[in-house]
Amino acid sequence: MTYEPIIGLEIHSELATATKLFCSCPTKFGAPANSQVCPICMGHPGTLPVVNEKAVEYMVRTALALNCKIAEITTFDRKNYYYPDLPKNYQVSQQYHPFGKDGFLEIKTGNGAKRIGLDNIHLEEDAGKNVHPEGKSVSFVDINRAGIPLVEIVTKPDLRDVEEVEIFMNDLRNILLYTGVSDCKMQEGSLRFEANISVRERGQNYMPPRVEIKNLNSFKIVLSAVKHEIGRQMKMLEKKETVLRETRLWDDEKQITRPMRSKEEAHDYRYFPEPDLPPLFISQEEIEKIKKELPELPNARKERFAVDYGLTEYDSNLLTSSKEMADFFEESLKVFNQLHPVRNSPDIASGRTISNGAKEIANWLIGPVTRYLNEHNISIKETKLTPELLVGITTYVHEGIINQNTAKNILPEILEKGKSPEELIKEKGLTQVTDEGEISRAVDKVLQANQQAVKDFQNGKTETLGFLVGQVMKITKGKANPKIAGELIKKGLKNL
Ligand SMILES: [Zn+2]
């Protein structure tokens, strides 16, 4: 029998406002414990909340970017529960009239475009944090995080496999970054996921009981947890066992999901309208104003990259898949065009000026730079590479001072230490050898030492030329200009 997973996600993202949702405490990450608190976010009796206007603006911006219908009137509700990090004993959220409804995000999968429905997106306040120092029999409470505005995005159960989940998470994070509403730093808890998973027989329409997995704090953990949970449920169905509706946690050490102790779930939140906050009216003009100020979103940028810079769809896709990378590309191009205005050429068809640097810079970013970032699991912002340094590399290669291979070899040092290519070329004596006399001597040596390859070449096996050039590069420690080396070898072979 074949099975079909049904997956929905709930995403919490901290909004990048300078102050909290209902008080003027700062939201800076990493401040000393309980240094960013006041009577309002500590839940002292008699205090009253006031909604942060910036948080409302960011909320509307997010809802618009995610194609939601914006409610003209929204209300806040209390979600009641007790926990040490929640001094008010309730969290202000939106249960009945959220900011945005019926949105969608279109993802591109291997099978084409697919719309993932968004049930609703709403505003709520974050809770504080319980801290359990390792090896000590005490716990601490840090209220700094309590009251930081969160946007919660609830998808419809439209995702069907781990690949779709990965593309969706990446695209959503990108939109949040592009709109500037969140820094999405998962290691700082700015972006958190929960997944609802069930599995049914393929071709059926019923909705089986769903299992909720809480506290998934990195893309990797989400994907591992979803994959494991799908497998677990399929095995149960194979054995004709019943999958229960329950909340489970991800055990990263054992790489399995395990049920939450019943004490940890079974909430009856007793939602009721927040009496201290009046309903919020958002006028059509306000919505229009925020819509107009909406920054360029990933899909639009992708299209612009293809048209303006003459890049392929594949290249523009990769460059805009992260905002950091797309920004870096455009910054580099600016530096490039200032340095090499002559290398710009008008595109005859459109009459626009297309920078020749675009393809060159794109190739470096998509190729060796991205490879390095993936190997080290970091973003371009976490390296010491600057647009100036990158353009420096392309310039040295273009002018023939170093060859492509040498440039690739020194790239890690530039990324790690921020050293300029000029410095590294001097330090390591890497200048490309274009002096024919010197290359000629290396060619002679290579032809002498590789008689068999020479014979093969003379017998018509021309592909041995590549091997011989490789040998010359080896002798010259990679510094010979490969084009000149190839020509001299051909000349040498003729004269033998
Ligand atoms: Zn406060």
Put the structure in a nutshell.
With 496 residues, the protein is α+β, with helices and mostly antiparallel strands. The chain is built from 15 helices and 18 strands.
Question: What are the key terms here?
Answer:
496 residues; 9-stranded mixed beta sheet; 3-stranded antiparallel beta sheet; binds zinc ion; 40% helix; alpha+beta; Arc Repressor Mutant, subunit A
Distance between the terminal alpha carbons, to the nearest Å?
70 Å
Radius of gyration: 29 Å
Which molecules are bound in this entry?
Answer: zinc ion
Total count of domains: 3
Q: Helix coverage percent of residues?
A: 25-40%
Biggest sheet overview: 9 strands, mixed
SS summary, helix count = 15
Number of strands: 18
Provide structural commentary:
The protein has 496 residues and is of the alpha+beta class. The chain has three domains: 288 residues, no CATH class; 131 residues, no CATH class; 60 residues, Arc Repressor Mutant, subunit A (Orthogonal Bundle). The chain contains 15 helices and 18 strands. Strand 13 and strand 14 form a beta hairpin. Helix 7 packs antiparallel against helix 8. The radius of gyration is 29 Å and the shape is elongated. The model has no long low-confidence stretch (mean pLDDT 89). The protein binds zinc ion. Zinc ion (ZN) binds next to loops.
Summarize the topology.
Elements: E1 3-14, H1 53-65, E2 69-70, E3 73-74, E4 77-80, E5 90-93, E6 100-109, E7 112-125, E8 129-131, E9 140-142, E10 149-155, H2 162-178, E11 191-201, E12 211-216, H3 219-238, E13 246-251, E14 256-259, E15 272-273, E16 280-281, H4 284-292, H5 298-309, H6 313-320, H7 323-339, E17 344-346, E18 353-355, H8 357-376, H9 387-398, H10 404-417, H11 421-428, H12 436-449, H13 451-458, H14 464-475, H15 482-495
Helix pairs in contact: 2-3, 5-6, 7-8, 7-9, 9-10, 12-14, 12-15, 13-14, 14-15
The chain binds zinc ion.
Zinc ion (ZN) binds next to loops.
